[in-house]
Specification:
binds magnesium ion, 19 helices, 388 residues, mainly alpha
Length: 388
Amino acid sequence: MRENESYTPRSMDQVLGCMIGGAVGDALGYAVEFMSYDSIVKEYGERGITRYRLDRHGVAEISDDTQMSLFTAAGILLGMTRGQMRGIMGRIDTYCHWTYLDWLHTQEWKSRHEDARVDSWLMDVSELYAQRAPGNTCLSALRSLEAGKEVRNNSCGCGGVMRTAPMALLSELHGYADGDKLYCDMCASEAARLTHEHPLGFIPSAILNDMLMQILEDDGRRLEDYVAEALQRLPEIVSREDEGKKYGDLWPDEIRKQGRLLGKALELAATDIEDHYAIESIGGGWTGHEALAIAVYSAARHRGSFEDAVVSCVNHSGDSDSTGAICGNIMGALLGRSAIPACFIDSLELRNVIEEIATGPVYRVHHQRIRSLRHSREEALEHEILRT
Ligand SMILES: [Mg+2]
């Protein structure tokens, strides 16, 4: 693991932009998640929703997409902190297993339950104990994991890819696996696969991770180039969970399907067709491959403006908060936090927590929690992590 040599002002702006941007898209879209395009226009006017719908305290609520992204970040930090403190760590996605169970805890309890196993400092953030239309696939898969049972589903929902972005950010910032994209893409994909077992539920995470890592390393190229490079690498990813077989041999049809849909999204972005028609011809975004393609469409169509891209990406009849979140991740990474209008940042729920987890050096973020554990509890934690 390298020192944090890549902490330049530009990269920090991009990392913050990616995390905050995702939360902005999520919060904007959450207000219209279950509305048809016609109902959105009827309620918010011709451009659809363009500003937050605030709660009675003046806060723009995030949904499960951002909540789970925070727990992805917490999982990575848990693993990396262990690596730095003990000189040993498992594969990075395996730590998300534990922090996603923490998220499940926030959905099932109103506050931290004293008997429950807790792995993340996020469990002290009271605002996270809130249900924001959590996905059933995530809930039921995590309940199985908590009970020590195998997860069995064939879901290709977008609940995996919507929470992926921190994997790229923290891998890049903290030099995980020395930036080996094939390996990091596999980790991102496996973190999604914890809850979504259909290839189109976890392959999009590998692509998004790859794109974001490329953007953070070199943001001078076109979005089309990042997509093309990610798709080129995809079949070469080696699945450690499938006897070392390559993705291209395991899931050729799904990879082709995702590639075709991303190609369609980029073609549509070069036309002057209205956004909502273009988006609805890609799909509703309820599945992982559609949500990624819709986000890529809006980012490519409105590449110069964070606001235009995200507004376009939430105003359709499908899964507005997830498509908005992924588009916000991409645009925030491309343009940086400084390109996000203040009106979207000021009232965003948990902004400080999102910023802290995105940028906090591993030790500072996590050592307090580890220190606060009772000795026996720490031993138990160490033991379980070692097994992963
Ligand atoms: Mg949501």
